[in-house]
Amino acid sequence: MPSPLNGKVIVVTGASSGIGAAIAQRVTRDGATAILVARRSKALQEVVDRCKQGKAGRAIAVTADVTSRGEVRRVVAESVAKEDRIDVWINNVGQGITRVPSELTDADIDDMIRVNVKTALYGMQEVLPVFRRQRAGHIINISSQLGRAPTVLPRSAYSAAKHFLNALTEYFRMELAETMPGVTVSLVSPGVVRTDFGLNASHGGVDSRAIPGGQDPEEVAEVVAGVIVSLRPDVYTQPGAKASIDRYYAGLGADP
User: Fold this and answer.
1) 49-52: long-range contacts (C-beta < 8 A, 24 or more apart)?
2) How confident is the model at residue 252 (pLDDT cuts 50, 70, 90)?
């Protein structure tokens, strides 16, 4: 029996490595067409080649910098020109930062919002005309457990940006429930993932692979594939994550 992913056209931003690359490989394995978007064309092509080894689906590289609205608009146009539709748009671009809040600069804040919030905002807004014509579509924003609870001091601005993204995602969901009920908006919140994320953080950082309790990106990709099928609105990728977040807020002693 064909997978529910078979034949879907899925755009994945930040697809040249890490979670994005793992998502692309996972969905093409089940017969989807993945349109992979990232700035690094060589790395992107390497992911495309790995996807093609599965032989079930298709993978297409589109080199673009999604911190630019115009580039996102181009990705939408090229995707529709190639495949005639977009079924799922996954906003996966993100970057961390290693700096305590008292030392944050204007540039630090601007960078965190530009990479972690505006890229998703552009994706959501620019794909909407396509979903409106289709009367269907699915937006998935990759957030973080740090978007739920501010628990890692040097990640202060990243955590704040992900809180912003979470709120924006919820408000998009509320708006589209009234204006475009055929469009689903989902939020996926990983914890620590064994990728280059920590090493690529602004101002440097520890290797995420060295942090205890992490997940492989393939585990996150499996959750995302499940969300595409289930249309669940809000999902953590690690067992027990929600309970951990609840305990954090219970420990603050806030009034109910």
Assistant:
1) 50/21, 50/25, 51/24, 51/25, 52/28
2) confident
Total residues found in the chain within this entry: 256
Decide if 3 is inside a domain: no
Closest to 139 measured CA to CA, from 231, 4, 38, 235: 231
pLDDT digits (tens, 9 = 90+) for 75-132: 999 999 999 999 999 999 999 999 999 999 999 999 999 999 999 999 999 999 999 9
Counting the structural domains of the chain, the total is 1
Indicate which CATH number applies to the domain containing 176: 3.40.50.720
Q: Is residue 256 part of a domain?
A: no
Domain annotation covers residue 4: no
Residue 122 CB partners (closer than 8 Å, separation 6+):
66, 68, 69, 72, 73
- Is 249 in the active site? no
**114 within a domain of the structure (yes/no):** yes
The residue that leads in pLDDT, 216 or 251, is 216
Is the pTM for the entire model greater than 0.85? yes
The pLDDT tens digits for 6-21 are 999 999 999 999 999 9
| Other CB atoms within 10 A of residue 222 CB | 15
Which of 158, 236, 248, 249 is catalytic? The answer is 158
